[in-house]
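2024-03-11 09:14:02 INFO queue: dequeued item HEAT repeat domain-containing protein, len=289
2024-03-11 09:14:02 INFO validating residues
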Amino acid sequence: MITAEPVPGAADALVWQCLGQRPCNLTAPELARFFHPGRPQELRLALVERLGMHNKRGLQPCLALIDRYGPLPELLMALGMTHQPSARDALLRYLDDPGIDRLVLLRSLAGWGRQVPLPVIQEALQHPGQAMRLAGMDLLQFHARLLTAQQLLHLAEPLLEDIRPPVAIAAIRLLQRRNEPLLVGRLAQVLQEDSPEPVWEAALRALGSIGTTTSITLLLECWLARRGMPKAVELFHQLGAQFRHQHLLRQRLRHLLQEDKVTAEEVTPLLAGLGGAPEDVSGSQPERA
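2024-03-11 09:14:37 INFO prediction written
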């Protein structure tokens, strides 16, 4: 076993060698002794990752390193990886420290989002940075079921309007877990907007996965508005996948045919997928030869 040096040096290669052994038999205290802020960043990250994976055994060595070197980002990350209540409490205390790397702190708290105050999450969601917004969204998932539809939409709205697809898609995936008409309607609005392609497709899948009468009605309205456009085909396919509400969909198509808003020719492929036929919807019988 090599002896940890008080400062980094030639032993870096030997530490890498120990970390690369399978299995790696370094204990949590040994990993902590090898850690030093002067070592290469990649090596520091590898050490603290292994330290955090020791869970309860890694907690005290990690706290000792923070006492010695301060709340370095990699040490905060290791603290979160231990998944210990004491680690959570220590991380929560840093929320009031303006000198802490905020992004790393929120990511380290990702497993305890319910304990993170909602104003802290809202601050992250309103931050202009993509990584910070996504970290806030990860934490918001723990609060989502406790919020009203209006409260949730208020928090998610800035992300839905974000031009960066990963941010908007994260908000869409959160909203699709709820089926209130307000949230379903906002997803349908994304389909009516000139959204980036990945965002539009995510909203389409989200609306299709909800499977309520409201979501099907809105899908049908979006298809009617997009007829003749390339995206109408994708909407049409999503309507055809609504197997749980075939009767409702046929009923809506019947009304549209009666109001001359669609033609039997337009809905024939959809009816075929639903196990019906145009004459079943229109109520008329086909002419006999």
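2024-03-11 09:14:37 INFO annotate: The chain has a mean pLDDT of 87.
2024-03-11 09:14:38 INFO item closed
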